[in-house]
Amino acid sequence: MSAAETLAGEALDPLDPRYRTVLRLGSLVAALPLLVAAVVADAVLSSRFDFAFGAIASGIALLLISWVLVSPARRFNAWGYRLDGDELNVARGVLTRTHSIVPLQRVQHIDVGQGAIARRFGLAELVVHTAGTHGAAVTIPGLALPEAERLRDEIRLHIRREAE
Question: Which letter does DSSP use for residue 94 in this model?
Fold first, then answer.
């Protein structure tokens, strides 16, 4: 069951589908140095010992292909969010599931940010900083930029109404 499907019986909003591609690109960038290291290990072992070149790299390549193709989809499906009245609900996590409920009256400030890859895909992340613990923040990555701005503006309006 994905985080976007249900949370206490209520449907959560999924992240933008383009975020799967961003996650795959990030996994690919992380996988390349590991593959290069495996090829170098193969070259060293095959030149010094009676060792078949490609034995290590092919096994590592299969693992990395699975990591690049499967892991991002699972991580994407593990996210869900919903802005409901006076709270923001965020569910995330593949191995360790976390469900955060942020009361909007505790919000100190809100950031909308874009990394280089996400910006190319028109995506952003919403970071909601809360009162209380130093550095307490809830982040929702993989939002379409207009959706991140809409959530920011809606939270900001709620804060202004509470202050009046």
Answer: S
